[in-house]
Amino acid sequence: xxxxxxxxxxVTVPKRWHLGxxxxxxxxxxxxxxxxxxxxxxxxxxxxxxxxRVLDFTITSFAVPVVNRRLADAxxxxxxADVQPIPINIAGQPGMFVLNALRTLRCVDEAHSEFIKxxxxxxxxxxxxxxxxxxxxxxxEAKIPRDAQIFRIEGSLVELIVxxxxxxxxxxxxxxGAKFIELQTSGTRSHA
Length: 192
Description:
By secondary structure, this protein is mainly β. It has a domain at 4-103 and 163-182. Helix content is 11%, strand content 32%. The protein has helices at residues 69-79, 164-173, and strands at 4-9, 18-19, 48-50, 57-59, 65-68, 83-88, 96-101, 104-105, 114-117, 131-136, 138-140, 150-153, 160-163, 178-182, 184-186. The strands form five sheets. It has a five-stranded mixed β-sheet with strand order 8-12-13-1-14. A four-stranded antiparallel β-sheet has the order 4-5-7-6, with helices on one face. The longest helix has 11 residues, at 69-79.
């Protein structure tokens, strides 16, 4: 059985920096957490909203993972085409990348998870049927392909999930700012 972890921003790191939203020169926010390949030749910019200790791994105010080159290389080595490294401009901090997760999986074991879904009556009726909040996430391992190393949950796109192999690779190269929460799994993956 493969172990999976929710990858979070460790907000308890003392005197750390905080990053705002990624934007393009015209002020628009590129869709960098919607599992859509970023096709622009323009380099997005991310402001530092609170100065402090630069982290190897940070999540912006809108759930976009930002990593240094060393960490990006380690994650890409394992995840391949499932992630897109996008160079970004952060004032005074060269060599940083957005790590755009391109794979989404419908793999929530809804019988064992705790969640709320958007409805047509909510202020975001356009999101009806998607996960509004997941307070307990249990993955159905039978719905996770063997090669899945980094992915988001289909219908949520907030949760960023990594395999144990990715977690180990991140820890080997140094991942100050990353926090890993092990997830429960149910179901049995086929051995085919």
